[in-house]
């Protein structure tokens, strides 16, 4: 009886996971499938299979949307944000972990508070500040604000791990003549490789997918990011769903590649600090 009950539990769990998998995968499958259909077929039946691979959708979408320009813009902003936000997060967390406990805890609390403030609460302030600082319609402005928002999460993730690193390693490096910066880069940074990869992947996904910040800071057509370009294309065209979906599929490719390559690091990186 006990074995039979365990088998039923396994079957129920398997069915549950299968249903959840279908729920998450089905929308992506439908999007990819409709990217190869002409517009009339999409309007007729969104769930039908394509009669033939209509590849003209992709070439036409890239031409009309000025796709390669916005792709380069998005890639530049995303990569720079990942580098800047990760570096600032690591150095801030390293400093906090070496401060006296009371001072370090107070600074850490400030970063926690920064993490819980929603972006929507400061949208107007960011718009006004970017205008006064001359950061509107610049990729630099996007990189600065993204990095500022992401640093809270990065510090929270790093601090838990850095506090568990034995101080003897740094003392040994100091005896060998290494200064604080060299110790931080050559001794401590390699120890948090998994956490750094995890943070980098998350920062990449968040920046690549974001619509709100570039929509309030970028109005120049040649400086737009992919999400803004897709949104504006949808707003300015008369139901050309085939081109919109084709552009959406192409914009998904870097995200899928990054996630597949770094998937194994995400769980281990996020739990490293808590476990240690």
From TrEMBL:
From the UniProt annotation, give the residues forming the signal peptide. Answer: none
Q: Which InterPro entries does the annotation name?
A: MetI-like, MetI-like_sf
**Membrane-spanning regions, if any?**
15-36, 75-96, 108-128, 140-162, 183-208, 241-261
Q: Which domain of life is it from?
A: Bacteria
Q: Where is the ABC transmembrane type-1 domain?
A: 71-262
Membrane-related topology note? Multi-pass membrane protein
Q: Which Pfam families match?
A: BPD_transp_1
An individual GO BP term: transmembrane transport
Please provide the record's keywords in A-Z order: Cell membrane, Membrane, Transmembrane, Transmembrane helix, Transport
Enumerate the Gene3D superfamilies for this protein: MetI-like
Q: Which family does it belong to?
A: Belongs to the binding-protein-dependent transport system permease family.
- Name of protein: Inner membrane ABC transporter permease protein ycjP
Per the UniProt record, the source organism is Blautia wexlerae
State the taxonomy lineage: Bacteria, Bacillati, Bacillota, Clostridia, Lachnospirales
């Amino acid at each position: 009886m006990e074995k039979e009950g365990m088998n039923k539990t396994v079957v129920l769990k398997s069915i549950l996971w299968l249903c959840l998998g279908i729920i998450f995968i089905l929308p992506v499958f439908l999007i990819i499938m409709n990217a190869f259909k002409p517009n009339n077929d999409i309007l007729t039946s969104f769930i039908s299979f394509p009669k033939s691979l209509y590849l003209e959708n992709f070439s036409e979408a890239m031409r009309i949307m000025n796709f390669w320009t916005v792709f380069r813009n998005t890639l530049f902003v995303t990569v720079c944000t990942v580098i800047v936000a990760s570096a600032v997060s690591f150095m801030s967390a390293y400093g906090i972990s070496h401060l006296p406990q009371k001072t370090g805890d107070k600074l850490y609390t400030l970063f926690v508070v920064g993490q819980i403030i929603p972006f929507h609460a400061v949208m107007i302030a960011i718009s006004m500040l970017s205008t006064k600082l001359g950061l509107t319609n610049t990729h630099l402005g996007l990189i600065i604000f993204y990095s500022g928002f992401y640093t809270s999460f990065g510090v929270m993730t790093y601090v838990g791990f850095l506090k568990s690193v034995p101080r003897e390693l740094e003392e040994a490096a100091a005896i060998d003549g290494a200064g604080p910066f060299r110790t931080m880069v050559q001794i401590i940074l390699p120890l948090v490789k998994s956490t750094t990869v995890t943070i980098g992947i998350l920062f990449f996904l968040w920046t690549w997918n974001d619509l709100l910040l570039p929509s309030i800071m970028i109005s120049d057509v040649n400086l737009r990011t992919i999400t803004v370009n897709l949104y504006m294309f949808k707003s300015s065209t008369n139901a050309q769903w085939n081109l919109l979906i084709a552009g959406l599929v192409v914009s998904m490719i870097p995200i899928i590649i990054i996630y597949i390559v770094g998937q194994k690091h995400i769980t281990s990186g996020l739990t490293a600090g808590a476990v240690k």
